[in-house]
Specification:
This protein is mainly α and about 300 residues long. It has one domain. Helix content is about 75%, strand content about 0%. The protein contains 13 helices and no strands.
């Protein structure tokens, strides 16, 4: 089962690498239907439908998603996860409009560093030299991924870093709530609640900004719709189901090493689709970030009080 779990998470990293390309394709397709450069409305609608579709698929194909959904605790815990998840994905997509899929993927992978640091602070551990070295290496990689720092690190990058911080919070919260609630049931309630919250936020935003987006035209354009469906089915429904079922069979360090492949796949795919240029800065910064993540994650399991 351990080998199957390794293969499953390997597939997950490949799928998640693709999602950065799909998100970028959807954003590019949306530009002809928007009267401004603001991608907030597009991001809210995309995330809303993405989670909405996944929420429909999960109880239909995964029996455990229908278990314990009458339990109030499952919905309370799902709401907590939904806030972290929703914020992370919305900020990620808004930030992606200003950077390439590869850079977005590498910066998003900072959630590994943030998770390790949150655990150290929360559990009141003394950080080891391993964690500190990993943090410094990853910080160096993030700063140099698009060239010397200060030249390129702008709002898009900072929004993506914020997205990584929210994903780290989601990981910590998931670890807490899945110990007291059904993991699959909480996955369903969190995805459904994220879709509903995003739906209401979208209505409010569009009402306050009328005429900013041609919604009907956008949702009937295959260049936007196909990436949206692919992200919902593969990036959310299939990937999250595999993670919830198989990750528990692997130790956290091995899982984190596998997850570090996500930005690597995103880079390879982005270069293949002409969305990313092959540069030494990308390789240098990206490699430092990935290795720093892995080192910090390993160090987080060697901390002492």
């Amino acid at each position: 089962m351990r080998n199957k779990a390794t293969i499953a998470l390997f597939i997950v990293t490949f799928i998640w690498g693709w999602t950065f390309v799909w998100l970028k394709q959807a954003l590019e397709a949306s530009k002809m239907y928007s009267t401004t450069d603001n991608t907030t409305a597009v991001s809210l609608i995309f995330v809303c439908i993405r989670f909405g579709l996944a929420a429909c698929f999960l109880p239909l194909f995964v029996k455990k998603a229908r278990v314990n959904i009458k339990d109030f605790a499952v919905w309370k815990d799902g709401f907590i996860l939904a806030l972290f998840m929703l914020g992370g994905f919305v900020f990620q997509m808004i930030g992606l409009d200003g950077i390439t899929p590869a850079v977005s993927a590498f910066l998003t992978s900072l959630y590994v560093i943030f998770t390790a640091l949150i655990v150290v602070i929360w559990k009141k551990y003394v950080p080891t030299y391993t964690i500190l070295f990993g943090v410094l290496l990853a910080t160096f990689g993030a700063g140099y991924i698009q060239g010397p720092p200060g030249l390129h690190f702008d709002l898009a990058e900072w929004l993506t870093v914020l997205c990584a911080l929210l994903f780290a919070g989601h990981i910590i919260a998931t670890d807490v709530v899945t110990k007291r609630s059904s993991p699959i049931a909480v996955t369903f309630t969190s995805i459904l609640l994220a879709a509903l919250i995003c739906f209401f936020v979208s209505i409010v935003y569009v009402s306050l900004n009328p005429g900013e987006l041609q919604i009907i035209g956008l949702l009937t354009d295959s260049k936007f719709l196909i990436p949206l469906i692919l992200t919902a089915v593969f990036g959310t429904f299939i990937a999250l189901t595999l993670v919830n079922y198989f990750q528990k069979l692997l130790d956290p360090v091995r899982a984190s090493v596998l997850y570090a492949l996500e930005p690597v796949w995103a880079t390879i795919l982005a270069i293949g689709f002409g969305m990313e240029k092959f540069t030494l800065w990308l390789i240098l910064g990206g490699s430092a970030l990935v290795v720093g993540n892995i080192i910090a994650e390993i160090g987080s399991y060697k901390t002492v009080k």
